[in-house]
Write a structure and sequence with these properties.
The structure is a single chain. The chain folds into 2 domains: about 170 residues, Sandwich (Jelly Rolls), CATH 2.60.120.280; about 100 residues, Homeodomain-like (Arc Repressor Mutant, subunit A, Orthogonal Bundle), CATH 1.10.10. The protein is built from 12 helices and 11 strands. It starts with 14 loop residues before the first strand and ends with a helix. Helix 4 runs antiparallel to helix 5, helix 7 packs across helix 8 and helix 10 crosses helix 11. By secondary structure, the protein is of the alpha+beta class.
Length: about 300
């Protein structure tokens, strides 16, 4: 029997933003599946039948659906009219990193914990109608995310993150009006929250020497348990993740500055320029110089 689990490389692609059209996409209908990332759908044309954790919703243009992590869901067409909608996929742990207090909390509330509680609360419906969203610019926010992803101009990930956070905050406000208690989202962080915290720490300290013993200690884990949990959560070792973060930062410097390779290798935490070139070619298939010339 085929697994319902859908893998997503949340490290290399923390956000996915695209338009779906049942008349053009061969993967339709979207059969039951689940994943570790969250997903937002905004319906533009046609009528859909959405199932989510044994609940069924019939959508119309202007409606919105939120699939929380690890919920089994599916998408079908309700009529002969093609179904068109916008899709935003994202990792809540990276969207609201636990160490970034300005974005991980709204009024002191831990957002990933809030959405975990929302799964068990009838006042936090994952299906919002066009009428409930009538005073909000939801379609514009979805389209902005898709446009940013398509063009990938400077700061596009930051812009996408901002738009998704705005959408989620508007959803939370509607939930509160319906009686959802946001004060319950003060749960102590779980292992996944510690890992979300450490990935944020790696991101901000990638230019420095990072020892796995120190990372494990920050997560209150043993060396072996940290390594095992990290690989199970993200599908790769902590060492590969650190290299990935450094290459992402180097790629931005190659794309948007004229700094030489020696400076970039030092600025992004590589031991020397040759190490930087070797890792860059392993991940990108070309050297940093070739990458810059291609641009």
């Amino acid at each position: 029997m085929n697994s319902l689990f859908e893998y997503s490389d949340s490290l290399n692609a923390p956000y996915e933003c695209f338009s779906a059209d049942s008349a053009r996409n061969s993967y339709f209908p979207v059969r039951p599946h689940w994943h570790y990332f969250a997903e937002l759908l905004y319906f533009q044309e046609g009528s859909g039948i959405i199932t989510c954790d044994n609940q069924t919703y019939y959508t119309s243009p202007g409606d919105l659906v939120l699939f929380l992590p690890q919920t089994i869901h599916s998408i079908y067409i309700a009529t002969d009219v093609p179904l068109r909608y916008c899709v935003l996929k994202f990792d809540l742990g990276q969207l609201f990193p636990a160490t970034d207090h300005s974005s991980s909390t709204f009024s002191g509330i831990h957002i990933p914990s809030l959405f975990a509680h929302a799964r068990e609360d009838k006042n936090a419906s994952v299906y919002l109608t066009a009428e409930q969203l009538s005073n909000l610019s939801m379609e514009e926010l979805f389209i902005r995310c898709i446009t940013e992803m398509e063009h990938q101009h400077f700061g596009y990930r930051m812009m996408i993150r901002s738009c998704i956070q705005t959408i989620l905050l508007e959803i939370i406000r509607i939930w509160r009006e319906n009686g959802f208690d946001t004060d319950q989202a003060f749960a102590p962080p779980k292992d996944s929250d510690f890992l979300a915290s450490i990935t944020e720490y790696i991101d901000t300290h990638a230019h420095l020497p990072l020892k796995v013993e120190d990372l494990a200690e920050r997560c209150h884990m043993s060396y072996s348990y940290f390594a095992k949990t990290f690989r199970e959560t993200y599908g790769q070792s902590y060492k590969k993740y650190i290299e990935f973060i450094r290459i992402c930062k180097a790629e931005d410097l190659l794309r948007f500055t004229n700094l030489d390779l020696n400076y970039i290798s030092q600025e992004t935490g590589f031991s020397d320029c040759s190490h930087f070139i070797r890792v860059f070619k392993q991940q990108k298939g070309i050297t940093p110089k070739q990458f810059r010339m291609k641009l």
